[in-house]
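YM 10:42: Cytochrome c biosynthesis protein sequence, as discussed on the call
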Amino acid sequence: MATENSIGALRGSAPGWGWGRWMWRTLTSMRTAVMLLALLAVAAVPGSVLPQRNVASDPAAVVRYEAEHPRLAPWLDRMGLFEVYSSPWFAATYLLLLFSMTGCVIPRCARLWRESRATPPPGPRRLDRMDSYHRVTLDAPRGVVLARAAAVLRGRGYRISTSDTEIAAEKGYARELGNLAFHLSLLVLLVGMAGSKLLGYEGRVALVEGETFTNVSSSYDALTPAALMDVDDLTPFSVTLRTLETAFAPSGPKVGEPRKFDAHVSYTSAGDEGSATIRPNEPLDVEGTKLFLSGHGYAPKVTVRDGRGDVVFSDAVIFLPSDGALTSDGVIKVPSAEPRQLGFEGVLLPTAPPAGGSRSEFPALWAPRLDLVAYTGDLGMDAGVPQSVFTLDKSDLQPIGRESLRIGETMELPNGAGSITFDGVARFANFQVARDPGKEIALVAGLLLLVGLTASLIVRRRRQWVRVTDLPDGGVRIELAGRSLTRRTLPDGEADELLALVTTVSPERSNRLRSPA
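YM 10:58: structure's back
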């Protein structure tokens, strides 16, 4: 019976090690790990359903969603649902799962490893209560029968332990090793995902044909580095977009659907030069950094002259597609124009309708038209406030003209403000640049999971016992029984085959007797 002192001592230890031990055991239990894994999967659902910020493949997705859902979007933003994978609650769930899996899997792996190396235990006292029980008598020495049984079981891949009267054998340890590999792969997968989120990065860059991208942070249109990633330690290389080849379905139910989407590039890295073709799902790999082709569009080439007749701008300007027919819109800013700055809002129609219209009929450059609205005044670029290259601050601008241009045509601005000429159309490509240092670890984890799960499902772990007892009138009695350690039953006929091989040492002294399982 416990004394009052002992009870008080137990109560006194509860707030310290007692509660700490209980919390650790609860956190590292398999039930908690499964619950956290399910919670993480549920937490990832908004990241798959809702658009996410800092996604290189579609950087304007959140902006469009906010414009389409002006009442709902602010509430979703307050809950961090537009940045799910970088939100504190998602990171907290992930870290709890990592700790839980570590405390759950490592001891379990150690236990499974010990079990896989343990010798088979001796059989129960009553073998006749086991599965596939057989009994037979032989005129042979006990040692000879045991040696024969040991040789047969070893030949069939069993691990055995022997005594003077019994052989205990076990087979199917690969199942436990498969369980070990399966559980360990989950932890390795989490580590690989953590490595990608802590050490990798993802960026976005748009290149017009002929332009060159150098892998430095200032060259990116958008760059999302990981928490422990140093932006000054990017892999040094440069890539030039030579040409972008596209083709579209000209007719049929999927008219306008892309059929060809090839970016021909040249690159330089660490003194090595080469060329490559980047296609969807066929990225360019430069020393572990991959460039994926994520989108394309058109960049109208224009020449702008100011009121003095000087060429103040002559280049291709990227316009962003707004529909499947690549109707694209963008802005042109000319802060160096005199006597006043110039700005243009434009819509490019790759195939303009012959009877007029504001949307393109087809994504190919069959009949390009550039619709422009001209502004003059102060662009606001000297105020020191960052501006998007795709929007025009019209608070200090006045519209001065509107016109639709075909290639080669010029729009003359009123009051001698200048002119703009539509010189042609170039193509541009969107590239997603990513470095994922944890992908190799994740690949190893995936292979480990596949091998471990396959072994644990296919391999049958089972035990066999052969007990040899001397009879008073000479000879021996052989008892053979087996037991399955999985839900699957013992292989049909295995016990009969084992007994037949064991009893070949001499003629049988009596008929074989079988007891019910």
